[in-house]
Amino acid sequence: MADDVPLIPAQAAELEAWLRGLRGQAPESSAGQKAHAEGQCLQRALSATATAKEQPALSPRELDALLERAERDGLFRASGCQICAAWREALGRVWQAPAWRWGGAFSGALALSLMVWLGLPQQRLLWPGDEEAPAASSAETRGATDDVTRGSDGVLQLRVPDPQAWRESLATDLQAQGLQVRRYERLGRLGLDVELSDLTAERQPVARAILKRRGIPWPTDGVLMLELSVGPAPSPP
Amino acid sequence: MEREVFKRACAQGGEDMRLAFRQLVHDYGRALLRECSVCLRDPESARDALQNALLKIWKSCASYRGESELFPWLKRVARTVAIDELRASAVRLPSSASLPAVDEELDPALPDELPGPEALTASRLALERYRECEARFREVEPEAAAVIRWIAEDELSIEDVARLLNRTPQATRQYLYQCRRKARQYLAPWYAQVAGGEG
Fold first, then answer.
1. Which residue in the set B8, B15, B22 is minimally distant from A89, CB to CB?
2. Cα A65 to Cα B119: distance, rounded to the nearest angstrom
3. What is the reported pTM?
4. Helices (H), chain B
5. Which of B4, B24, B38, B47 should we substitute to test contact with A (largest number of A Cβ atoms within 10 Å)?
6. Residue A121: is the preceding peptide bond cis (ω within 30°)?
7. pLDDT computed for residue A143 by the predictor
8. pLDDT score of A22 more than 50
9. Terminal Cα-to-Cα distance of chain A (whole angstroms)
10. Buried-most residue among A16, A168, B18, B112 (CB within 10 A)?
11. 3-state DSSP call for residue A148?
12. What are phi and psi of A56, to 5 degrees?
């Protein structure tokens, strides 16, 4: 009988009854009782003679050889983006998690947004429009600019050992040039805003020198926004 | 091994997968070897099939989506590998070549009144008779014998068997119909013995 020839209905019914008996299921109808009994007998015999013999699993030597073979096949090559996989998995778990866990996910997203807003992770500072601070041309600013970064919100971030004293020193120097300095504190960090465009032409070189001395680049838009956090002393200019 | 551990190792690869590979052999090695042994009676062939099955499990681990339990999925892979090995070995060296061919027309009628299933296996003699008949059946028709055992053990549906054998459901019905005929033929002496009250 060829494989592609369908069974006639009587054969199909008999097969179904036999399979139900073989699976240990009750007959569906009184038809095919004999086939069902035959399957049931076979099922009982198979279960009575099921091999309970404990077979040894792979020996350590066999397993090592198999692992070597797998290694040769490139099976243990780390996937291209393990961090991505971990993130995908974590996000997948959150997606499937009960509703209360959404709170955690929301907090995480909020914290991430806050970090971006505050300028973390920070970018290495580049000064595309700042003619005063070419990276390698000025020995005076080189060391200090390495410690200055610009957050995504445009605020310069500087790490100094004593932010309070450092800010006061800078503010005093700038105020001496007739500039309005606004001091503030945001999330534990001391900040300072100054409108440099208010400077008169003759005072501008002095103000530039004040910033340069501290490794702060001249802002192209004329507004200095600076935040300070505790950190090692900037490299001496 | 938990399915999450398996999925994670599969996604990570590298050392994670190597460790999980060892763990999987520790947890399921014996059970999977048994699955291979149902189909391949020769212990060496079964062990080879187990090794191939383990490699296939990890090569195709991404296709396990974690919606069902892990062990049935592992078992299905091992069974597929064992059947493939069986078919390949049958092509290389037909094991039944020296055995008398089964008479396709022979479809022995079973006794009209089969005793209850308990009676068929109750006595040691009946069980011995069954073992002899089944051994012969497995020797000559290993694939049919294995498929019948898997259906009985795991209550496989026709669709399950079709997936396992890589056949259409219609072809699988036809195949199972033939399996039943073969089983009746090889087990007929056992049925006759118990129906005649010899057991």
1. B8
2. 48
3. 0.55
4. 3-12, 14-39, 43-59, 70-92, 117-122, 124-140, 142-154, 158-165, 169-195
5. B47
6. yes
7. 39
8. yes
9. 94
10. A16
11. strand
12. -65, 135
